[in-house]
Amino acid sequence: MIRIPYLVTSLAGALCFTSAVTSALAEPAVDAARARQIATQHACFGCHAVDKKLVGPAWRDVAARYAGKPGAAATLAAHIQNGSSGGWGAVPMPPNALSAGDAQTVAQWILAGSKTD
Ligand code: HEC
User: Is the Cα dihedral 16, 65, 94, 46 positive or negative?
Assistant: First the structure.
């Protein structure tokens, strides 16, 4: 059981770091197909594109802004779920009705560059 002491050690650290480690253990790669499916289902593409600004910022720009920031996936997942304002301009993003897990999947995919494969 290598995972138990590893997780206990992680739990002693910052919460966002812990969730990053545990989700990395559960799911080593970003599931791009699933992330795109979620984004399509929740009409994200009505306001967003990967490489250009529409109503909301281009997801490539979001990835660039948050690159290397600790807890970025958790922050973005919360903004996706609850909505956000004041980060990119005058127009706020309304809350989106998706699960925390789905928000996390899409956030990780956006941070990884919104790749299609
Ligand atoms: C009605 C239009 C609209 C929809 C639908 C929408 N967004 Fe947004 N989104 C925006 C706007 C506008 C912003 C910029 C908000 C701000 O300035 O803080 C934004 C910001 C974001 C950001 C950056 C947040 C940050 O903290 O910098 C992410 C990531 C994002 N949206 C993902 C999504 C995802 C995923 C979905 C679908 C579940 C979605 N958006 C649906 C309009 C939308």
Answer: negative
